[in-house]
Amino acid sequence: MNQDYIKPDNWSIIEEGFDAERVKSSESLFSIGNGAMGQRANFEETYSAETFQGSYIAGIYYPDKTKVGWWKNGYPKYFAKVLNAPNWIGIDIEINEENLDLNTCTEVRNFRRELNMKEGWYNRSFEAVLKNGTEIAVNVRRFLSLNLDEAGIIKYDITPLNKDAKIVYKPYVDAGVTNEDANWEEKFWEPLEVKKGTNEAFVTAQTFKTHFKVTTFMHNTILANGENINVSPSTIDSTIDKVQYTYGTIIAKGQTSSIQKIGGYTVSLNHENTLAGAEKVIKSAVALGYETLLQNQIEAWAKIWEMSDITIEGDIKAQQGIRFNIFQLNQTYSGKDSRLNIGPKGFTGEKYGGSTYWDTEAYCIPFYMATKDQQVARNLLTYRYNQLDKAIENAKDNLGFKNGAALYPMVTMNGEECHNEWEITHEEIHRNGAIAFAIYNYNRYTGDYSYIPEKGLEVLIGIARFWHQRASFSKDKNQYVILGVTGPNEYENNINNNFYTNYIAKWCIDFAAEQIEKVASEYPADHKRVLEKVSLSANEIQEWKKVANNMYFPISEELGIYLQQDGFLDKELVPVKDLDKSQRPINQKWSWDRVLRSPYIKQADVLQGFYFFEDHFSKEELKRNFEFYESFTVHESSLSPCVHSIQAAALDKMDMAYTFYLRTSRLDLDDYNKEVEEGCHITSMAGTWMSIVEGFGGMRVKNDQLHFSPKIPKEWKGYSFKINFRNQILKVAVNHNETTFTVDGDQDLTIIVNGKPEIASKFVQIN
């Protein structure tokens, strides 16, 4: 049974009623971020029951020493931890000399959380009865400023309901934090300096080993009935890593006492002097004031939604799901800084570590290309170019490759491999292909070829060299094979001739060779510069082509399908529909040995290949492969349902497409895989966007033109989305009677709809 406590709403995520069993899940779901930092929905006040404390800063990490049972050559020395950053939100509260703690209150009623996605704020309210008999009403609003992205703002209101109350606020900043996820239970932060002012405080600390310096700051204002009462702290307590102020107030029954707390981080990535930077942020935030900061937040989110929103009529859960996904993507990555990337948990948790997986190239780039300026997607490609030397070093030092062969890491922060499971680190080499495909996809969508001669060609050459060396010649098959790999389906390890891996290896070599020829013809100066830099000869390219032209792909002639890998049909092929539901998810119920021997698929490798290279196969081939592999896929990868939704729509299996859409869009809201308390699945959320735009909308780019084959689930009355295609904004609106294509501006756009060319301009309708 999936969780079902989130209230359906078009624009908000809402929880009603306090349940300690849901606290950690809600901490994930109600997380907020602004691209520079993020915060789980932890309570500001003390909470003595189980909780997962998490504050995160983009680009800040710690190289936690790898912990394995048996060390093997080539293991990364560390696993990069997404760090729990110093706590800026904390406010201990005493009411009539009793500590406010929802775990110890005699009654908690009318508890409500709301994450308002339209306006970008998180609100929590409740009434509580303390053990001393005092009854209070509390309302707390928190947001992380998009415009002033080093600052977060909290407004915490308390109204005594049955008697006058002495309320003591004890706001603090604290660098003495630990990680929920740590290999050796080490502390990751070294305190450096504490500074105290009248109503503001600063704790500066740095990470051990990586030496990122961070100043965590706060500024406090005490109010009564909305008016600043200019209270100074009665006491100031500090240690080497924590500063806490105490403000005492007395408020009459029915009146409201408040604290407004401005807090956040300045980091050495952006400031030579982080303390001076923090003082400037406070000055800017105080000058604007709470109401202006909130209004600026609302306006900034309105601008984001103007381009990235997807509307769905007639299905409130579907609407809530897609907006939640889009909201989290925009919270996680703004595209402003090419040093940053999109971690699989974003700012919602620590699991998986690292800031970059193949998810970015395979799933996220299409969303950012279509809903932002193309420079945002180009920054994501530049991120990989800037780490090419590390990819070459990884292939050379860890795997023994030579001559500039590049293996991009499965997980990384700075370009080094930092994933410590051997079957992933050494074998899930298909990630190289996603990086090359992203370069192709960027050029195909934006029409901007300049990235390839400037930067991308070097990446493609390094990747092609890797595949050339990784393949080996089989005398038995008289073809090239790729042995000992793990495909995207991580429920099968150390296999031979994974179809997806072999296919994308061949494609990478072919694509690299084609781009070398194109750059030679159209950008001769860049061609000369790059080939001299990497020492590439025509003879070496011919050796690549021998591998690509004679690559082996496992197939079943009898079934008319490609095989996930050699020997897949040797498994006991019991379909998922015959698997006892009590055994799901199998990764939490079965031994790893049993999972590996089963036919069950975390995500279907063959179908991932068909998704990337749809035009290489006929619809009949897609149908045969889809129907076969879908019957064995358990979708316990967050990246799986979206691809199945897109392909089901292409095959006119609309009921199935809709079911998979709901699964991908509400994966976290409904906690399908029973793990949301660890954080949300941010990168797979881009796949939810693709499920509508590429699945139901049928959007493709072919021969420099947009193609659409719109379809609509029977459960919906209509849906609409916008895309930025080559600096033209196209709105697509679909209902059961017609599809409308509207272009912003005066320039028409020729599109292909159901195979026929049409002119999309203002208010032109295609029936």
From TrEMBL:
Highest rank taxon of the organism: Bacteria
Domain Glycoside hydrolase family 65 C-terminal as annotated: residue spans: 699-757
All residue ranges annotated as the Glycoside hydrolase family 65 N-terminal domain in the record: 14-268
Chain positions recorded as substrate binding sites: 358-359, 602-603
Active site: 490
GO molecular function, one term: glycosyltransferase activity
Family according to the record: Belongs to the glycosyl hydrolase 65 family.
Record's protein name: Maltose phosphorylase
